[in-house]
Amino acid sequence: MPLSGAPPPPDAPSKLSASQAFKAALLVGVVVQNAALNIAARWSRVEAEAAFAETGCGAAATTVVLTVEVVKIAMALLLFALESGGVAPACAELARVTRAEPAECGKIAVPALALIYVVQNNLLLVAAANLEGPVLALFGQLKILTTAVFSVALLGRTLGPRRWAALVALTAAIATVQVSQLRPAPESGDAGTKNVPLGLALTLVVATLSGFAGVYFEKVLKGSRISVWVRNVHLAAISSVVAGAAVASRDRGALAACGFFGGYGPVAWGYVLVQAVGGLLIAAVVKYADNILKAFATSVAIVVVALVSHAFFAFELSGLFFLGAAGVVYAIFLYGDLLRDVPGCRDCPPALGGAEVREPADLETN
C-alpha cells in the first residue's frame, strides 16, 4: 500500500486522461451536431428551393422527416444490438418486451405522441426555410422556457427566483435577436427566403411541442425497466407510420413526378444524418456528462453557427444580435445554476447567479 502523500500508481494518469479525452470528444461531438443541425436545416431548404427552381423537384420536408425516422430506427437497433450482444438477441428481446409489456410500450408508441414529433420536425424545416442558421439556433432555445412550463404543469416541479429570472432573461434576449433581424443590410445573408416573424412563430410552436414531448418522455421513462433504445425503436416506428401518412397526403403528386428522393442533395442527406445522430448524442451526454458540458456545448454551438454563417453565408453580425446572443447564453447558464463559481458572479444576488442553496428541482436545460 503506498504511503500517504506518495505519487499515484503509474496507470492513474492514463485513466484520468482517457476520461478527460472521452468528455472532450463528447463535447466536440455535441457542439458539431448542434451547429451542423441549424446550418444544415437552413441550407437543406435553400438547396431544395434552388433544385425546385432548376428542375421542378426539391426535397420535400415530409420525405426528409420520414427518412430521419427510418434512420433513427436503424441506429437504435444497432445500439441495442451492441448492448444485447448481437443482432439476434436484440431482435428476440425487442419482440419479447413488445409482447410481454404492451401497456408499458404503448405509453411511447402512441399515435398522438408520434404525431407531435412528426409535426414538430416538419415545422422545424418550415421555420428553417424562413430563418438563417444563427437566428434559428437562438430562437430554438425557447425550448428551455416551454420545458420549464410543462415541468411545472405535468411534473409538479417548483421553479425558484433564479430560474424565473433566467426565463425572463431568455425571453428578452430572444426579443432582442428578433429586433436585430427586422432591418438587415440589403446585401447581407444567404439567398434563401427570409420571414423572421413567421419563423419565430413556427419556432415557438416547435419549442412548445418539443417541451411537452420531452417532459412526457421523461415522465414515462422514470422507473421504467425497458431499454431506452427499445423505447426509441417503438417511437420511431410509429412516427414513421405517421410521417408516411403525411407524405401520402401532402406530397403524393411530387412523389409521382420526382420520386421519393427527388431533389435530395448533399445538404439534405447531411441534415438527415445529423438529426438522427442528435438523439444518440443527447443520450450519451445525459449518461456520461453533466449540465455544465451541455450548457457549454449549446453556447459554443451558437457562436460557431454565427461565425460560420458570417464567414460563408454573409450573415450580418450586428451589435443587437451579439447582445441578444449573449443574453441567451447567460440565460442558459443561469437556468442551470452554473454561474456560482464564475469569478465576479458568486457575490451577485442569488436570482442573478450568485451562490445559494441548490433548488430541489434540477430541470435539464437540454
TrEMBL record:
Chief site of localization: membrane
GO CC annotation terms, alphabetical: Golgi membrane
Membrane topology: Multi-pass membrane protein
UniProt keyword Metal-binding present: no
Localization annotation: Membrane
Molecular-function annotations in GO: pyrimidine nucleotide-sugar transmembrane transporter activity
Keywords on record: Membrane, Sugar transport, Transmembrane, Transmembrane helix, Transport
Domain of life: Eukaryota
Membrane-spanning intervals of the chain: 108-129, 135-155, 164-184, 196-217, 229-248, 268-286, 293-313, 319-336
Annotated NCBIfam families: nst (TIGR00803)
Protein name listed in UniProt: Putative nucleotide sugar transporter
Gene: STP8
